[in-house]
Design a protein that fits this description.
The complex is a heterodimer of chains A (113) and B (280). Chain A has 113 residues and is α/β, with parallel strands linked by helices. Chain A is 26% helix and 26% strand. Chain A has one domain: 2-Layer Sandwich (Nucleotidyltransferase, domain 5). Chain A has three helices and six strands. Chain A has a six-stranded mixed sheet, sandwiched between helices. Chain B is α/β, with parallel strands linked by helices and 280 residues long. Classes of the chains: A alpha/beta (113), B alpha/beta (280). At the A-B interface, helix 1 and helix 2 of A face strand 4 of B.
């Protein structure tokens, strides 16, 4: 399973980001291998429609779970259609903290309806 | 002749000037007034009359799921996020679509057909014997203001005297309004913001090669900076409208100062003469 965590910068120690499609970085964690990878979000300065575009990008990378703060309406529709699960990490901790909270079952699912 | 009225800053009095000018011109000739401020058209408030509506449509993608193999090319191409290919479906977000047609071109399977979708309307009326008002209206939440502006302008094509009332700002809707105009009247006000945005709007007119003149509205009599700017840029100041409670109260009840306030018909007639003199 590949989890995407929205982040302010690259790496597991970077602060988690509350915005979804306009997050500066996306960090991907493969739960089977434990490997992680961060990419700069190419959509951060786009004028609009970033939600659906970000979801297609994550879909292409095989992501099935998203950990972020808030999800906009267009992004929610795309995430729902793609069968994603989204969870809210409301804290100001790191990407590693957000992942630990998810693994501990402490994160609330974000309603995509 | 095609006259555009622009300002940069919102609320300087574009529509006030357009409505009064149109009223004065319609006393002696046929004029078509086009409200190109399609996100918030207001000229109809000065000229209430029965309207005939024509819908404006834009082409948006429709997916043929018999042909689509979810390759994702359309979603990668669309910079507006109007399509997203996720897993085994294609989502379309028609209100994000800019009708560029690119998705249909890049689709390797010919699975995208463009279909019309209503985004607004053009309303036509004839409030005075010699005045036709054409109003572009963009539906709330839609992005394609230029399409409605182009449609509204199209309805006026061929008339000898047309006046376009632009939206505030200097973005695409204003460029589309100014396109093809023979003259641009810039309405400003006696504030630093008015001057700041006049500078921007004058730059647009210059870039488009359209001769321009200035009306200072709500003048507090201290217009030195605006006057100096206009002198430096060879922009004639064609009229100055004072900041006055009397004018404001006529405005506020949808009145026209050229019609309702003694002395102003003559002033707007002089303004229209100065503009018509420039001619195409």
């Amino acid at each position: 399973m590949i989890i995407c965590i929205t982040a302010r910068a690259g790496g597991m120690d970077a602060q988690a980001e509350q915005r979804f499609a306009r997050a500066p970085y996306f960090t991907f964690v493969n739960t089977e291998t434990g490997a992680s990878e961060s990419i700069e979000n190419p959509l951060i300065d786009a004028s609009g429609g970033v939600g659906p575009r970000a979801v297609q990008m994550l879909s292409d990378r095989g992501v099935t779970v998203v950990i972020t703060g808030h999800v906009g309406g267009n992004a929610a529709r795309a995430l729902a259609a793609g069968g994603f699960k989204a969870f809210a990490y409301p804290g100001s901790g790191s990407v590693a903290d957000a992942l630990a909270a998810y693994n501990a079952g402490n994160l609330q699912p974000i309603s995509l309806a | 002749m095609k006259i555009a009225i622009a300002s940069g800053k919102g609320g300087t009095g574009k529509s006030t000037v357009a409505a009064n000018l149109a009223w004065v011109l319609a006393r002696s000739r046929d004029i078509v007034l086009v409200d190109c401020d399609v996100e918030e058209p207001n000229l109809h408030l000065y000229f209430p009359a029965e309207e005939t509506d024509v819908p404006v449509t834009a082409l948006v993608p429709e997916i043929d799921f018999e042909r689509c193999n979810f390759c994702g090319e359309c979603g990668k191409f669309c910079r507006f996020g109007a399509l997203a290919v996720v897993k085994d479906t294609v989502l379309t977000f028609p209100y994000l679509c800019h009708s560029c047609g690119g998705c249909a071109l890049v689709c390797p399977r010919g699975a995208i057909k463009e279909v019309p979708r209503t985004i607004g309307k053009v309303s036509c009326s004839r409030p005075l014997p010699r005045l036709v008002l054409i109003t572009g209206v963009l539906n709330e939440g839609e992005v394609l203001a230029p399409s409605v502006i182009k449609a509204a302008k199209m309805f006026a094509e061929g008339h000898p005297l047309i006046m376009y009332d632009a939206s505030p700002g200097i973005a695409c809707p204003v460029i589309d309004t100014l396109e093809g105009s023979d003259y641009c009247l810039l309405v400003t006000e006696s504030t630093p913001f008015g001057l700041h945005d006049l500078r921007l709007a004058a730059g647009v007119a210059e870039e488009l090669g359209i001769p321009a003149g200035v009306v200072i509205n709500r003048s507090d009599g201290k217009d030195e900076e605006t006057v100096a700017f206009c002198r430096e840029h060879d922009l004639p100041i064609l009229a100055t409208i004072p900041f006055s409670r009397e004018i404001a109260s006529i405005q506020n009840r949808g009145g026209l100062i050229a019609r309702d306030l003694p002395g102003w018909e003559e002033r707007f007639a002089a303004l229209s003469d100065a503009i018509l003199e420039v001619g195409p």
